[in-house]
Amino acid sequence: MAIASHGTGRREARTVAERRLYAAVARVANRALAEAKTAAADDGLPLRPKPVRIRRPGEQLAAKEIDLRERLQSQPHPNAEQR
């Protein structure tokens, strides 16, 4: 049972059973893709990372950056031993 694609990237089924099989696989793949897109949209995270401006040495921090730095430095290090 050979599968021909003729350079289109799509498989041509030679029998009714093959056509049904390919249609079922396509339905499952489309459903999985739709579920993945929905899950990605539901988590509240952006699809692309936010661009960041790289500061030069000696440049002052913005108020947001100062707040973030203080919050991060006040957290215990994850590898620190608990006493």
Descriptive overview:
This protein is mainly α and 83 residues long. It has helices at residues 16-42, 63-74. The protein has a domain at 1-50. 47% of the residues lie in helices and 0% in strands. The protein contains two helices and no strands.
> Major beta sheet, specifics?
none
What Rg do the Cα atoms give?
26 Å
Q: List the uncertain runs.
A: none
Annotation, overall tally of beta strands: 0
List keywords for this structure.
83 residues, mainly alpha, 2 helices
What's the short version?
The chain has 83 residues and is mainly alpha-helical. The protein contains two helices and no strands.
Topology, pairings included?
Layout: H1 16-42, H2 63-74
